[in-house]
Design brief:
- The chain is mainly α.
- It folds into two domains: 49 residues, no CATH class; 40 residues, Ribosomal Protein S14/S29 (30s Ribosomal Protein S14, Chain N), CATH 4.10.830.10.
- A two-stranded antiparallel ribbon has the order 1-2.
- β1 and β2 form a beta hairpin.
- The protein is elongated, with a radius of gyration of 18 Å.
- The mean pLDDT is 93.
């Protein structure tokens, strides 16, 4: 499990991104890059990072399922993910 501070920091970034999303688009369309620079750094969509919804792990993230590779394997073996089965040949 990831440290709770990292999960909280990412949640804060998502909140800031949502807050300034419209303003950021408006400033970009107008070409006012000086005002855009004055917005908080963490309101940029580039600074967002995907995290597993169960463990908060940032690496090995499957976007389609919203979980890390470790949680995905666990849930797939238990049969909790519909349509996913371990392959054998």
């Amino acid at each position: 499990m990831a440290r709770l501070s990292l999960i909280a920091r990412e949640a804060k970034r998502v909140k800031l991104y949502e807050k300034y999303k419209a303003k950021r688009e408006e400033l970009k369309a107008a070409g006012d890059f000086e005002e855009l620079q004055k917005l908080p750094k963490n309101s940029s969509p580039v600074r967002l990072h995907n995290r597993c919804m169960f463990t908060g792990r940032a690496r090995g993230f499957y976007r389609k399922f919203g979980v890390s590779r470790l949680v995905f394997r666990e849930k797939a073996l238990k049969g909790e993910i519909p349509g996913v089965r371990k392959s054998s040949w």
